[in-house]
Write a structure and sequence with these properties.
This protein has about 120 residues and is an alpha+beta fold. It has a domain of about 70 residues: Ribosomal Protein L30, Chain: A. Helix content is about 55%, strand content about 15%. A 3-stranded antiparallel beta sheet has the order 2-1-3, covered by helices on one side. Helix 4 packs across helix 5. The longest helix is centred in the first third of the chain and has 15 residues. The two termini are about 55 Å apart. About 5% of the residues have low confidence. Keywords: Ribonucleoprotein, Ribosomal protein. Homodimer. Part of the ribosomal stalk of the 50S ribosomal subunit. Forms a multimeric L10(L12)X complex, where L10 forms an elongated spine to which 2 to 4 L12 dimers bind in a sequential fashion. Binds GTP-bound translation factors. Pfam families: Ribosomal_L12, Ribosomal_L12_N.
């Protein structure tokens, strides 16, 4: 059985709120569905700062084509020796620093990206 959707839409435009509410309830009962928004979606939208992290891990995911500069940057950031810093740059992905503030993580990211590295904050 075909129906005229344009006709249905026109009828819905002219319906009162009470009529539309009754229609929704009837559809829910007939088909066993709910027109209510999922609770998880509503809770996530109202959460605000709940998902904001206190600390970040800075991961070098690609060292780029300026490895010597990347090694120097890693040494400055971490205080590691040449061999250890080179090891981190050579074996990407590698965590450069753990548990840092958002501000410090962004500074580290900016420093490493300036020498061609690709950084992920976790």
């Amino acid at each position: 059985m075909a129906f005229d959707k344009d006709n249905i839409i026109d009828q819905l435009k002219d319906a009162s709120i009470s009529d539309l509410n009754d229609l929704v309830k009837s559809i829910e009962d007939e088909f066993g569905v709910s027109a209510a928004a999922p609770v998880a979606a509503a809770g996530g939208a109202a959460g605000g700062d709940e998902g904001k992290k206190d600390s970040y891990d800075v991961e070098l995911t690609e060292s780029g084509d300026q490895k010597v500069k990347a090694i120097k940057a890693v040494r400055e950031i971490t205080g590691l020796g040449l061999k250890d810093a080179k090891g981190l740059v050579d074996k990407v992905p590698s965590t450069i620093k753990e548990g840092v503030s958002e501000e410090e993580a962004n500074k580290i990211k900016e420093t490493l990206e300036a020498v061609g590295g690709v950084v992920t904050l976790k």
